[in-house]
Design goal:
By secondary structure, the protein is α/β, with parallel strands linked by helices. Helix content is 43%, strand content 15%. The strands form three sheets. Strands 2-1-3-4-5-6-7 form a seven-stranded mixed sheet, with helices on both faces. A six-stranded parallel sheet has the order 8-11-12-13-14-15. Strand 11, helix 12 and strand 12 form a beta-alpha-beta unit. Helix 12 packs parallel to helix 13. The C terminus is likely disordered.
């Protein structure tokens, strides 16, 4: 085995809109690029298996790879490093590599935190991990110096190389190596198992978002033909008829979105899909076209019911645009998921209530609420850090735990947490909502238990260890 790619166990309470485990699309992209370069690759998803550091390390010891790559978000960084430490103790000569949003923005801090970690991949990883593997396989001692887009350890010194340019032609990337994961084992719907990305980059500068900093300010996109080729692979090779386009803003290039719809229809593919859009980008005509091609649901980042807070976030939208976008989607028979953020620095309790009330007034099919979490790399992170307003216990960066020192802003963490619970209860416990969405009663109760009750049980660790 040449390369093992590991998705660590995510112990955070909220992972996605329903708290389920999803196949690691990022690792499937890396694996596909490595396989194209003739490396043998294995993906281990411990967020699915829940085996833990020691068992995973023993499995990898038997595989004896040249390289082990681990992905990490801010909430999983501590866990990811524990896997690397356990693996290195059994395979001292393996090259340990970490990538993902958190290491991308704090590469030297990440290297400093664990001496068993050799390399941090910064930003887009497909070309970087492939070049790194080729250099390491040849045991080229100077190889690491020439690999752009990494930070690494050389003896007792830490070095950062020149940044790697963003991939210009996304059509050249091979489709994710889905054959390396066990689709049937995921507890998700087909829609989530059939996730795909059709574009990268974001031209906007929302204060709380790091997407444009990871994937660039330039919007890069795959051709409609290339996108629909992958849809055909999902439908005909994997039997998936529900697909989620996981782009930050699928609708940013409206002509391309329409061309994708036209291509799906021209090929006669029976598929249902979910897209995302800013609320200031939708028009009824484009929604109708996408709906006719199979779009079932659209995701909007509304974020606040206060125009003042939207302006503080540099979101660049109005409340009226949010109303119009939801109305347009409903008028063509498309379900709406809307996301909202509570506890933005400077927000008052009354403005949080305004957001909750606004979310109910919009009446989307699903609402997702989170507490403002200033992830490393975001503009708001650097501002709050400079003012000494952040706690940097990364385990708490789960979007349901307050990590801002709200007391210094005239609020309290408990108040913000209460507002989050209030938002979910107020939205999902409405009789009018539950009558229209009866299947959500069970989902709501299970999600609430998993998110708010189970993590606070005094004997939780005993339950977890027995069920592991």
């Amino acid at each position: 085995m040449d390369v093992v790619l590991l998705n660590p166990q995510d112990k955070t309470a909220v992972k996605n809109k329903l708290g389920l485990s999803l196949p690691p699309l990022n690792l499937m992209y890396l694996a596909a690029s490595l396989e194209k370069a003739s490396f043998s690759v294995k993906i281990i998803d411990d967020d699915l298996k829940r085996w833990g550091y020691e068992k995973i390390a023993k499995i990898i010891e038997k595989l004896n790879p040249l390289i082990v790559g681990v992905t990490a978000t801010t909430a999983t960084i501590k866990s990811s490093l524990e896997y690397i430490k356990a693996i290195k103790s059994l395979l001292p000569d393996v090259l340990t590599v970490i990538g993902g949003p958190h290491p991308t923005f704090l590469p030297l801090d990440t290297l400093k935190s664990l001496r068993e970690l050799d390399v941090v991949v910064i930003g887009e990883g497909e070309e970087t991990i492939t070049e790194l593997a080729e250099k390491y396989e040849r045991k080229d001692k100077k190889g690491l110096e020439e690999v752009r887009g990494i930070a690494y350890r050389t003896g007792s010194r830490l070095k950062i190389n020149r940044p790697r340019p963003l991939i210009k032609d996304l059509d050249k990337l091979p489709f994710p190596a889905r054959h390396l994961i066990p689709f049937h084992e995921y507890e998700t719907s087909n829609e989530e198992a059939g996730g795909m990305i059709t574009s990268r980059g974001c031209v906007y500068s929302c204060e709380y978002c790091s997407s444009s900093l990871i994937m660039g300010k330039k919007f890069r996109f795959r051709s409609p033909e290339n996108v629909v080729d992958e849809i055909e692979e999902l439908v005909y090779n994997y039997g998936l008829h529900d697909i989620a386009f996981l782009d930050d803003t699928f609708m940013l290039h409206r002509r391309r979105a329409q061309a994708i719809a036209d291509e799906i229809k021209a090929r006669g593919i029976d598929v249902s899909f979910v897209t995302s859009s800013r609320v200031d980008m939708v028009k009824r005509s484009i929604l109708e076209k996408l709906k006719s091609a199979g779009m079932s649901t659209i995701y909007y980042g509304v974020e606040s019911g206060s125009q003042r807070i939207l302006d503080l976030m540099k979101k660049g939208i109005t409340l009226q645009q949010a109303k119009d976008a939801v109305k347009a989607a409903k008028s063509v028979g498309v379900d709406v998921i809307a996301s909202f953020i509570l506890g933005y620095p400077g927000e008052t309790p009354e403005e949080m209530d305004k957001t909750i009330d606004f979310s109910i007034k919009l009446d989307p099919d699903y609402s997702q609420y989170s507490i403002l979490t200033p992830f490393p790399g975001t503009p708001i992170y650097y501002k709050l850090k400079k003012d000494g307003l952040l706690e940097e216990d990364w385990d708490k960066y789960t979007v349901i735990h307050p990590v801002i020192k709200y007391e210094k802003l005239g609020l309290s963490k408990e108040l913000v947490k209460r507002k989050l619970v209030k938002a979910y209860f107020k939205f999902y416990s409405r009789p009018s909502y539950l009558l229209k969405h009866t299947h959500m009663i069970k989902v709501f109760l299970e999600t609430f238990y998993r998110t708010y009750i189970k993590p606070n049980l005094p004997f939780r660790d005993v339950i977890t260890s027995k069920s592991a």
